[in-house]
Write a structure and sequence with these properties.
Two copies of one chain form a homodimer. Chain A has 174 residues and is an alpha/beta fold. The first copy, chain A, is built from six helices and eight strands. In chain A, the strands form two sheets. Chain A has a six-stranded parallel sheet with strand order 3-2-1-5-4-6. The longest helix of chain A has 14 residues. Chain A is globular. The first copy, chain A, starts with a strand and ends with a strand.
């Protein structure tokens, strides 16, 4: 199985709490195994762990990570690093290449990212060359990488589960 | 050409400003023609119009919309309404049907949405039955609906344009 983690950089505690929480939840829902956070933010950790605890699976989140060390360690252990940026190559041109790798670290920045990251990443990839959101970029990238298979994933040990329905909220709880 | 607009409901001014701005920017970047906002928020309008003005295309945004009237008008003029919700049918099971329509209003809620919306929508659609983000849900839905073609879109009359690059920021400006 392909191993995927997200590294969130440029997070500013307080101001970015909600967006970073959405990044982590999208990562979990769409096939990543965990998120490294290059900052300290207990609120983000608690929100994501709370969801993971109730909704199943074994998504990990680790904060206070040095982003440079995280990237270096990932590459040293044979993984590749994909930095999502509107300035990068078009995802539709590179996704087939990237899919050949089996350990992928996806770096997701906030508004400003250190320029160094462009050189440290193996791939700089754009989900359109338009400004939008790190959350939407990550979501489309994961869905392309996994070719939609992530939408069929099961989350074991869930305490609550949705039963898909055309017109109402249906869940089952343990 | 398929006509797509987004209706953002449940927006709370201040608190949701950043997330709603991301919803609008993702809508624009990934193939929608405009966004209706069922609230008043000048900050959101300004941010999105500023991007649209610099980066091209003719994305519209309209605030102070009554969501019920917006849905009713859309349906009366022959369009279909797709509500994105984790409780809905699986996108992978319904996207082919939805693609047969040529006017689609995508309803995107915040944390709480009025229960009525489930009955008013023609489709309630889940991008995985897991909690994540309205931004990631909208992005994956648009990409599935348009089958990736939105990533090749041009934005006419742009004042600034990215030149895709493997390792640096390159833009051209008028």
């Amino acid at each position: 199985m392909i191993e995927i983690a997200v590294l969130r950089i440029g997070h500013r505690p307080e101001r970015d709490q909600r967006v970073t929480t959405h990044v982590g939840l999208a990562a979990r829902a769409l096939g990543a195994q965990g998120m490294y956070l290059a900052a300290e933010d207990k609120g983000v950790l608690e929100s994501i762990r709370d969801v993971a605890d109730r909704w199943g699976g074994d998504f990990f989140i680790q904060d206070r990570v040095s982003w440079k060390r995280c990237i270096r360690d990932w590459k040293q252990s044979g993984g590749v690093v994909v930095h999502l940026t509107m300035y990068g190559e078009r995802v539709q041109d590179r996704e087939q290449d990237i899919r050949l790798h089996d350990r992928i670290l996806i770096v997701v920045g906030a508004e400003k990212v250190p320029g160094e990251i462009f050189g440290l990443a193996d791939y700089n990839i754009a989900i359109s060359g338009q400004p939008h959101s790190e959350i939407s970029s990550l979501a489309v990238f994961l869905d392309h990488l996994l070719q939609g298979t992530e939408l069929n994933a099961e989350f074991p040990q869930a305490k609550i589960r949705v039963i898909p329905s055309p017109a109402m909220k249906r869940t089952e709880q343990e």
